[in-house]
What we know:
Mean pLDDT: 93
Number of domains: 1
Low-confidence stretches: none
Helix content: 40-55%
Amino acid sequence: MEKFAPGFMVGAATAAHQVEGNNIHSDYWAQERLPHTSFTEPSGLACDHYNRYAEDIAMLANAGLNAYRFSIEWARIEPEEGRFDEAELTHYRSVIECCKQHGVEPVVTLHHFTSPQWLIAKGGWEAESTIADFVRYVTYVMERLGGELKYVCTINEANMGLQLAAIAKRFQLMAAQAAKTAPNAPNAQKAKSAEGTVQVGMNFEKMMENMKFAAAENAEVFGTPQPQIFVGQRTPAGDALVMRAHAAARDAIKALYPEIKVGVTLSMHDLQAQPGGEAFAAAAWAEEFTHYLPYIQGDDFLGVQNYTRTQYGPGGQLPAPQGAELTQMDYEFYPEALSHVLRRVAKDFKGALIVTENGIATADDTRRIAFIEKALAGVQACMADGLNIGGYFYWSLLDNFEWQKGFAMNFGLISVDRANGLTRTPKPSLGYLGSLRG
């Protein structure tokens, strides 16, 4: 396929908690260690990217990529409320400098799912005080690093909470129905079906099994039986609060550095209606995207994050088609979804679009290359038709910690040998993606 024009960002993405290791002050670190945790395994050292970022960025650059999206970990910067760690700030300055030394554009995300444990103890992402707390953290970081950045994502997948609330409700209904029709049957397959519809690693069956233990254990760790973490079931009020936090952070960044391009990222599926499913698909798109428009119209760009499609019929959401290829995450292999989402988003959002995440979990790198090729052919077709798309970031640079699913998912362009000192090995897909840079 054709190369992208010079200036188009061809990159890869990571999130701090998934790659850095030893994020000891965060809510996720605490949750991973609960006696009845829903996590398959703890993050621990993760990929040790905190200490090996220079090696990883060099590998990215040597393959031809020219951009790297990574997140700054709030729990490192502000491990206790109001106390900032200057050494951690210096660490992220070094990551930015390393990118620039290799001709790589650093694209920073200020919040990627994990939060300081103290924030959750205060009420988390349903508490009004979180907006001011987030702005304080953002201001501290941007006052010190903003002069080195051109692109900033405030919050990763700001709509994830509503998606999780809908999916959890659907899983509970499926489990209740299964209990009536086959009381001795396991819910594992239904859990897998639910997990394959959300673009984050979740273990729904394990979460349901652990509910009777969760309240007491959470109360001991967070001071509340129902901690409002970011990747949790959001209420409509909490959903609005997240977007208000984004808007407040955007305004704070612009007050300091008006030239920085600021946006938020959203998790979006290619929502397709079969005959009779039109109303379901329309309602899902309104919840997933259009109701956020009032909060993002002032943004410079929108980060589009897409992995697959979702189909709807007369009874609601449909499973993947019979015989469809599924990824390790139980997503349908459907790279065409990305261009469909970009075209639909562009009808309502008139700022620039950046594909901040798109990828596939598979142990077969030939399928990763095929996925990238089809997805990027769609991006180029969108651009040929006039869509303003500024970059593509594959998820993920490294095989990393996929949240509740642990280290079993192979999303990376680079393998990490966990049995052999976390040795990195670039996959052919890394070089293929780099070859498309203009």
